[in-house]
Design brief:
Elements lengths: L1 E4 L4 H11 L7 H22 L5 E8 L5 E8 L27 H9 L2 E7 L2 E9 L5
Antiparallel strand pairs: 1-2, 2-3, 3-5, 4-5
Length: 136
């Protein structure tokens, strides 16, 4: 699905994702984590790939498994492989003590079972596999 990516549209995109996975009957706690993952990925794209300018993002959901689903996010930004990004953040620091930057990607890596990246036809393609079993 093609979306205009801007900060005002984030909630619409989050709701679209939740609608696509509603058959998993997730509780509100897990739904909030899904919304956080979507928000962190899209905000990073908006700020870093698109330099805070509205642009296009493409999302797909694959729900072929009963214990996980895949969130596929594509953007037209410059090459960036988040799987090779090494956070300089100490996980043991309190959130208030951490400097800005890198926290969102760290959260996504914590919540996603698997993260894959590739570059295809000048698009960044991020594939997040979200495991559902621990949240049921």
């Amino acid at each position: 699905m093609k979306f205009d990516l801007n900060l005002e549209n984030l909630h619409v995109i989050q709701l679209w994702v939740l609608e696509k996975i509603k058959d998993y009957h997730l509780d509100s706690k897990f739904s909030k984590k899904i919304q956080l993952i979507v928000e962190e990925v899209l905000v990073n794209i908006f700020y870093h790939a698109y330099d805070k300018k509205q642009n296009t993002v493409y999302l797909e959901i694959e729900t072929s498994s009963s214990d996980s689903f895949k969130l596929i996010v594509k953007d037209k930004g410059p090459y960036f492989d988040p799987t090779s990004y090494k956070s300089k953040i100490d996980k043991n620091l309190l959130l208030e003590e951490k400097k800005e930057g890198g926290i969102g990607l760290l959260l996504v890596k914590e919540y996603a079972k698997e993260i894959k990246y590739n570059r295809d036809n000048n698009l960044n393609v991020l594939i997040l596999t979200i495991n559902l079993d621990p949240f049921r």
